[in-house]
Amino acid sequence: MSPPLRFLTLPFPVLWWPSPHFTPGRPTEVDLIVLHYISLPPGVFGTGDVIDLFLGRLDPRRYADYAHLCRMRVSAHFFIDRGGRIHQFVDTEDTAWHAGESAFEGRARCNEYSIGIELEGDEIHPFTASQYTSLICLCRALMLRYPGIRWGRVVGHSQIAPGRKKDPGPRFDWERLRRGLEKGGDTERG
Ligand SMILES: [Zn+2]
Q1: How many angstroms separate the alpha carbon of residue 85 from the centre of ligand 1?
Q2: What's this model's pTM, rounded to 2 decimal places?
Q3: How many Å lie between the centroid of ligand 1 and the Cα of residue 112?
Q4: Is the per-residue pLDDT at 186 higher than 70?
Q5: How far does residue 35's CA lie from ligand 1's centre (Å)?
Q6: What is the CATH number of the domain that holds 126?
Q7: 80 forms bridges with which residues in the sheet?
Q8: In terms of residue numbers, what domain contains 106?
């Protein structure tokens, strides 16, 4: 499963799971990355349930909270699992339903102009080294494709939906991401 990753080149394969949870196209230029965490059930990794949620096929019988969750129509563009594997659900040229009600610098409806990246995790477990490696690589590729995205426009869900959302949470190391992107920028631009 390799397409779409249109316009992006990554040094490793990406798993493509086409989700129905998106609006075709973009009403405006893409210039923001929104980072999230997710784990299903909460705090349990590698179940495959996040993939099922984004594909709209989560089995409500698997876990008590799923009865409510399985009716939600949500998906990020990308999901990075604990092993650092990148899964893609929505083409970056389409509007994925990941941010909900949100605003950045006074601009509402962040879904329309952002790329959503979910990291498999929670507020307790540190994210893995493989996740940072893949995230940095992915952000770098997105920044080349969408020049409006630069440092300062890679934000957490908690920043664009304060009070309502807290991801990617206290275990996410923003400094590590910043350093990784700086280093990558130098290499990319020679
Ligand atoms: Zn989120």
Answers
A1: 19
A2: 0.93
A3: 15
A4: no
A5: 7
A6: 3.40.80.10
A7: 86, 119
A8: 14-189
Place of tokens 């664009």: 160
DSSP 5-63: -TT---SS-EEE---S-EESS-SS---EEEEEEE-SSTT--SSSHHHHHHTT---GGGS
- Domain membership flag for residue 8: no
How many domains are contained in the chain? 1
Does 175 participate in catalysis according to the annotation?
no
Of 93, 105, 112, 118, the active-site residue reads 118
Say if residue 44's pLDDT is above 60.
Answer: yes
Q: What is the rounded end-to-end Cα distance, in angstroms, of the chain?
A: 32
**Which residues are registered as beta bridge partners of 96?**
22
Q: What percent of the chain has pLDDT over 70?
A: 95
For residue 175, is it within any domain?
A: yes
Residue 47 lies in a domain: yes
- Those residues whose C-beta lies under 8 Å from the C-beta of residue 114, and which sit 6 or more positions away, are 30, 32, 33, 34, 98, 99, 104
pLDDT in tens, 156-179: 999 999 999 999 999 999 999 999
Predicted pLDDT at 13: 87
Residue 1 covered by a domain: no
- HSE at residue 89, side-chain half, CA atoms within 13 A, is 28
The average pLDDT across 133-162 equals 96
